[in-house]
From TrEMBL:
Catalytic center residues: 304, 390 (proton donor)
Gene Ontology BP term (one): CAAX-box protein processing
GO molecular function: metal ion binding; metalloendopeptidase activity
Pfam families tied to this protein: Peptidase_M48, Peptidase_M48_N
Designated name of the protein: CAAX prenyl protease
Intracellular or extracellular location(s): Endoplasmic reticulum membrane
Entry's family note: Belongs to the peptidase M48A family.
Length: 467
């Protein structure tokens, strides 16, 4: 532990200029946040012409009829227009808030409200919670009309919306209630650990954040998810038998197998698993069950179990911990820098001893370009994991000595095509747009890879028989 703190102290020495040099951090944040937004807009303009293509890629030509492909193109075009407008609008609002001292005003406003109840500046955590509430409302309220437009205009136009106005409002209220119920105690504890641990907060905060993540793994399916969707045990039948048999052969610790009423809000389809290492739950959207054959849904679950087999969730958790460690390791230099707060219009009285909440909020803004790069790297890692999970499904025949699974790759390919057709997913994708935005390979890439995986599996199977 002492070695860790020694290295962290050395890092802070390298970053000491943050505390001594009056850098114009506001200009830096404005420039880089607009840079990221304009780059994302540029990517959308790269992608947009592809929505004018009249034919699908050759590998998909037999899977789409003309009407389905044109519908997907129109849906993609409308989503791109919406993304361009919302991206620029959100950045404009954030930029105005930043430029005209909204963050400093929010801190002062939170302090004034607390003062009416007899709480002074010494109650920093309480004031930080008030500050967080003001920022949450300021960022959430402008997004409500955009969210309503997306749900009741864009998604409705293309036949996906199943959400009623009443359900939309209910979901909004529930989301806010959950955010306040979980978020405020989390934030209070987060800030308390900072104060309690002093300059040696990094390992303690790492432990706290990991414990919180693990707690959500338990709380989400048992407490949060049921507030929005109904999870019912998957009915007895061919599909349940197939999935339970597959889980048993792989020794997957399946505890519950659910069907979720995703059609309550949307026609989009999905399937996923979650849980602790010794107790996993599989959830299948009712739309997926309705639109795909049992053997195809089984193939989708085979892909998902590939993620478990190769420990992808655990690897992503470790990567996220490394990411969090890097952020926390860099933070102390900014925590003790009055110049950072002064650059964002905070008064000298506040900047002299920077409150942790303010320093961390501004620090996150300063990290904007770094986070964009990290996002690209995470997408690349995620796509690698998707390839591995697809290959796993194709190799089940040999892994389990199960000849009935020899066509698992073909089944998965058909399921993916069905999902893309029913979801009107984009099939023409610009490579740079995909690298930045997509955590999954494109459908064309996956179908080509599945064919290659399937062919290799068959060759390996023949070779084993000859031996």
């Amino acid at each position: 532990m002492d070695f860790l703190h020694t290295q962290l102290a050395h890092l802070q020495h390298q970053l000491s200029f943050v505390q001594t040099d009056p850098i114009d951090w506001k200009f830096y944040v404005q420039a880089f946040s607009w840079g990221v937004t304009l780059f994302e807009t540029y990517l959308l303009f790269r992608q947009y012409p592809l929505y004018s293509k009249t034919e699908p890629p050759v590998v998909l030509a037999s899977h789409f009829n003309g009407d389905e492909f044109q519908k997907s193109q129109k849906y993609g075009k409308d989503k791109a227009k919406f993304s361009i407008v919302t991206g620029l609008l959100k950045q404009s609002i954030d930029s105005v808030m930043l430029q005209y001292g909204f963050y400093a005003w929010s801190w002062t406003a939170a302090g004034c409200v607390l003062a009416r109840f007899g709480y002074g500046p010494e109650y920093e955590i309480l004031q930080s919670l008030g500050f967080a509430i003001v920022l949450f409302l300021a960022s959430s309220i402008p997004g409500i009309p955009l969210s309503a437009y997306q749900t009741f205009v864009l998604e409705e136009k293309h036949g996906f919306n199943k959400t009623t106005p009443g359900l939309f409002v209910t979901d909004l209220v529930k989301g806010w209630a959950i955010g306040f119920t979980i978020g405020l105690p989390f934030l209070a504890t987060f800030l308390y650990v900072f104060k309690w641990a002093g300059d040696r907060f990094v390992p303690w905060l790492m432990a706290f954040l990991l414990a919180f993540q693990m707690s959500l793994v338990v709380l989400y399916p048992t407490v949060i998810q049921p507030l929005f969707n109904k999870l019912s045990p998957l009915a007895e039948g061919n599909l349940r038998t197939r999935i339970e048999a597959l889980a048993s052969k792989l020794k997957f610790p399946l505890k519950h197998l659910y069907e979720i009423d995703g059609s309550k809000r949307s026609s989009h389809s999905n399937a996923y698993f979650f849980g602790l290492p010794w107790s996993k739950h599989i959830v299948i959207f009712d739309t997926l069950i309705k639109e795909s054959k049992p053997e195809e849904v089984e193939a989708v679950l085979a892909h998902e179990l590939g993620h478990w087999y190769y420990m992808h969730p655990t690897k992503l958790l470790c990567i996220s911990q490394l990411h969090i460690f890097t952020i926390l390791a860099l933070f102390p230099a900014f925590l003790h820098s009055p110049y950072v707060l002064l650059a964002f219009d905070f008064p000298k009285s506040v900047a002299a001893v920077p409150p942790t909440m303010l320093a961390f909020t501004l620090f996150q803004m300063i990290l904007t370009p770094l986070e964009a790069v990290v996002g690209i790297g995470m997408n690349a890692m995620s796509r690698k994991f998707e390839w591995e999970a697809d290959r796993f499904a194709c190799e089940l025949q040999s892994k389990l000595a199960a000849p009935e699974m020899k066509d698992m790759g073909e089944r998965l390919g058909r399921a993916l095509v069905t999902l893309h057709v029913k979801n009107l997913s984009t099939v023409w994708v610009d490579w740079l747009y995909s690298a930045y935005h997509h955590s999954h390979p494109t459908l064309t890439e996956r179908l080509k890879a599945l064919e290659a995986f399937q062919a290799k599996t068959e060759v390996d199977s023949v070779a084993k028989k000859e031996l």
